[in-house]
Specification:
Length: 182
């Protein structure tokens, strides 16, 4: 019998391979091809890479009043892999950022929904001017009887001018700060 965790693992690996496959340069010289579903040119060579800032790949949540007490850990999570896919429509580049990771219940946690604050930001090189920033309270579930789970986060709402695509850095990671107000 195939376990739920094996199915999730296979689905995660399959999705990551599919998205990563869109980012290989092959013999196109970065020219891309037309995505039949989107009707948009898929960019392969000019798609900005995704980075993790120091201290944002890991998060640990404690029960109220239990900061730094190992027995009060509700959950801990880590981002283990990232990728992206870019497509062009008109003068805009759409970037889909994907982050995969693991979450585990701590002594003060258990099965149920876990909310993790994940931020995606696009920043101009040199000026550090923020072009895009979105904080999402991403939800995943820890199943009954399984203290760990894998998760797959994606943000497909990033649109930047094509002219800025070669001069930006894309970041994804956990962010415990307040959401940015528009």
């Amino acid at each position: 019998m195939v376990s739920l965790q094996s199915v999730r693992g296979f689905a995660l690996v399959s999705l990551m391979a599919l998205v990563a496959g869109c980012n290989t340069s092959g013999n196109t010289g970065g020219a891309g091809a037309i995505d039949e579903k989107l009707g948009a040119k898929v960019v392969q060579g000019g798609c900005p890479s995704v980075q993790l800032r120091d201290g944002t790949a890991y998060i640990r949540r404690y029960a109220r009043g239990g900061e730094d007490d190992p027995q009060k850990i509700v959950y801990q999570a880590s981002i283990t892999d990232t990728t992206r896919q870019c497509s062009i429509t008109g003068s805009q580049m759409n970037i889909t950022v994907v982050a995969a990771g693991h979450v585990a219940a701590g002594p003060a946690g258990g099965a149920g929904v876990v909310k993790m604050p994940i931020r995606v930001a696009v920043v101009e090189n040199g000026t550090n001017n923020v072009i895009y920033s979105e904080l999402t309270q991403f939800e995943t579930s820890l199943p009954e009887g399984a203290p760990t789970a894998q998760f797959l986060f994606n943000d497909s709402n990033i649109n930047i001018p094509i002219s800025a695509s070669r001069s930006v850095r894309v970041f994804v990671g956990f962010d415990e700060g307040p959401p940015k107000r528009s």
